[in-house]
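Objective 1.3, modelling of assemblies. Example input:
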Amino acid sequence: MTAVLKHELSNYFHSFTAYIFSAFLLAFVGIGAMLYNIQSAVANFEYVLRFVCLGFVIIIPILTMRVIAEERKQKTDQLLYSLPIKTSQIILGKYLALLIVYLIPLCIVALYPLIFAQFGDVYLVTSYGSLFAFFLMGAALIAIGTFISSLTENQGLAAGIAIPVILLNYYSVTLAEYVSSTALGSALTLIVLAVLLGVIVNHLTKNGNLAYGVGIGLTLLIGVIYYVDSSKFEGLLPNVMKQLSLFERFYTFVNGVFDLTAIVYDVTVIVFFLFLSVQSLEKRRYN
Amino acid sequence: MITVEHLTKCYGDFMAVNDLSFEIDEGHVYGFLGPNGAGKSTTMNIMTGCLSATQGHVRIDGYDIFEEPEKAKKLIGYLPELPPLYLNETPVEYLKFVGAAKGLKGQELHRQIDEVIEQTKIGHVKNRLIANLSKGYKQRVGIAQALLGNPKVIILDEPTVGLDPIQIIEIRDLIRQLGQTHTVILSSHILSEVQAICEKVLIIAKGKLVAFDAPENLEKLLLASNGITFTAEASVEEVDEIMKGIEPEVQWECGEAEDGMVLVRVKTESAEVRELCRQIFFAFAGKQRAILEMTSKKANLEDVFIELTEGDASAVQEESEEESLPEGKNTDESEVSEA
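Predicted structure (tokens):
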């Protein structure tokens, strides 16, 4: 794992990736700090972070697009498969390298509240609590980006998928207000998702029976629950969309609440998507 | 050393490898031979743990590649068909990564890197970007990577493809050297290459093993179908006239006469090719007709190969005919290596 970690790190610093990522992040934070802390003379550094997090839509895909896609393109994934290291170690090494690249500009950003504290009262606890949550949210988005990069061998496509996915997550709370909150609407959406899941299972396993089983089974289950007690689906869809938002959970920190469930959620997202990345890499062996 | 048992690999309905079983002993150079799409690369990918098998087992020195992959992979150095290189690194950086991933550390890592750089003769390019190296040097860096960690088995998938004749000779010499201390398995569709460096040959066609023996023994398998080709300074009629006088009777065919010269191909079932050459020579000399060039061709691995893979199916036959085309070039190369 350390070999992969070192190799990835040297790669990021030999190419422009690490520098571009840091430059963008620092520029966003700088603009935010100027607008809020300097021009508006607000003492809350967390508002800057809240302002910056839209920037993740662009900078996270820049960071993660090549991480696995490039290996596939250059056919170096074959080298990784033939080396005596586990796939999970490869993914973990690559992910930790990404985290380090992400942490470096954040270390610089961590100085800002201290600097501002020289000129007035800054709520340091909220600032650093938010910075911590900011780091975790970014880490979760990087895990998602890593997984998306493992799906394709085209870097551009990986970024092209990651940008709308993160954007959708960013706006999911806003969008939740527009989606149907009736029981029927939620049930129908779930049926569509069940069918989609069936299609994905069919694509991954090439097992038609299993796919039909999953698709039809879930559809029937939803139908039965709807028939028995349709109120269970009332407002389900908007609620789920609100729950899934990584950004919404970060805002609780900005509002001065240290929310443990948000931390658990971020860590769950990280573990889940890293697990999927390992599976995605393993799956190539079974093609 | 390596045991492959009932190996099967299916891609959907297509069987790339079909119930393949063989055993490989320590310390020889093995050639893996087959037409395109025969399943060579698939088998090698499975043996090195890059690909899963639908059925069957591969054991490297007793370790199952699927159940104890880390231990098994430590015993193997693998060069895939396309050398898996990070183009934006120098060979030294690249080898450092591969060595570290193979578990080498500190002094030992540097010592082994120096050693493989020496062995593959990439010393003068070791600090240049891999992207700027020629194909031959990229191939060498790929081989150097396989040698790191001093594995017992080295598996090379078509190591000489796309190299110029001089590079081919150098890589072959390197493989021969490696064969003295390691078990080397190389795949190729170049028959002369396998004939030149391998002690044993596995021929596979359509995912099945069709022959496994030393090249000399494989040649013996084949009925002698010897032939002589010569260019004579004579007209076609004169050649026919002279050839009729040869005892015992032989079959021949003439090419078109050009500049007063004609190319003649003679087929014989007899093993006494030399005697026949002498007869033809004197027969032409007696008629005051010069023979400008004469070569005799013994049955070689190519014939064995075509016969074994042809018998299987027409699809394979077509491919093996395609294979025999580049073979013409490769014979030239082997002549270069002998010169």
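Chain B touches chain A at residues 11-12, 45, 48-52, 69-71, 73-74, 76, 78, 80, 82, 84-89, 93, 97-98, 100-103, 145 (CB under 8 Å).
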